[in-house]
Amino acid sequence: MQVKDLGEFGLIERLIDMAVRQRAGPDNGGPLGFRLTVDAGDDTAAWRTGVATELFTTDTMVEGVHFTRETTPWRDVGWKSMASNISDIAAMGGLPTYALVTLGLPPDTAVADMEEMYRGMLEINNQYGVAIVGGDIVRSPVFFITVALTGVQDGQPLLRSTARPGDQVGVTGYVGSSGGGLRLMLDKTAAPPGAAEYLRQAHRRPQPAVAQGRVLAQAGVLTAMDISDGLADDLSKLCKASGVSARISASQVPVHPMLRAAFPSQCLELALGGGEDYLLLFTAPPHVMAQVMPQLPEGAAVIGEILAGPPGQVLLADQAGRVWPVGPAGWDHFRGDPAPGQTIP
Predict the structure, then answer these.
(1) Are 51 and 67 in contact (CB under 8 A)?
(2) Number of domain units in the chain
(3) What is the DSSP letter of 119?
(4) Cys staple from 55: which of 73, 151, 209, 274, with CB 3.0 to 4.6 Å?
């Protein structure tokens, strides 16, 4: 059966039934006074708010731009479409709550494929406490999915604009594994046993750092963002928003042993520019960083420091003490993919 056989409203009814009937995750908003009063199926969803700060974000995935069917199965498309939004909430130190899903579908889209995609969304939603409460479906010449997600924060949201000279720069885990997984699949590169599966999963099923964002916020960290477009580019964005620059040490950038085994000469390039890791990049004074780091998982590391330099500039230092500016490395919709080796001179 295809979408054109079932029709827009038939598909809406079918997916709403899945979203509501199979919802099983925790209600993150409930303890903070948020109460869902109108669920999926009406003109809008509605909820009462308590004393927390509401967070809102949205993200879109387009077939042929963000994924291909050769590299990402439909269930993983569902997972990633939610993961990118949950990661934005995590970057503010918040908890995700309610999602609206818009689908752009060619008429010959298979209904079974959309159900499989929803299964992936439900898997991550039930893990992180997200409820799909509505959305829209439109005809489109190419498949796309847009997710709008709300979240709650019971303290001060983490921002990009509060980094200060003297802060240390940290990441909450190994970087570059998602980019390594994508390159492995696109180039059909051979990898050691175990490495290929680890890297593919890192790309297809990233784990947003919600718990880590809560740790940062509760420890007094003020500045964070998620790593979606690549470590170097995202650090540059954070620095530009804060009016500062940064220097990172190549030897301190955390690279997973599986990534190093698969790409021994390219692992640093992937770590700096791979993108879609959905970890958190953050800055804090040294005494706060010392308190935070023991609470973070394996792979978390202090990688550099914030400087009073040109806003947005990121410098890379090697073990010999040589320093270079890091050029555009991550994903930009209108710049295109970087050439191999572009990141590091």
Answers:
(1) no
(2) 2
(3) H
(4) 151
Query: Which residues are within 8 A (CB) of 35 and not within 5 positions of it... i.e. 6 or more apart?
Result: 29, 47, 48
Q: pLDDT tens digits for 53-96?
A: 889 999 999 999 899 998 999 999 999 999 999 999 999 999 99
91 Cβ contact list (under 8 Å, min separation 6): 158, 213, 224, 225, 226, 280
Alpha helices in 190-310, H assignment, sequence order: 195-204, 210-219, 231-242, 257-262, 267-273, 286-292
Question: Do 283 and 169 touch, CB atoms closer than 8 A?
Answer: yes
Residue 160, domain member (yes or no) = no
User: Which amino acid, residue 57?
Assistant: T
Nearest one of 9, 259, 214 to 96, comparing CA atoms: 214
Q: Are strands 245-249 and 314-317 parallel, antiparallel or unpaired?
A: parallel
Q: Name the residue among 168, 315, 178 with its Cα closest to residue 255.
A: 178
CATH code (residue 15) = 3.30.1330.10
Cβ contact 90:208 at 8 Å: yes
pLDDT band at 337 (very low <50, low <70, confident <90, very high): very low
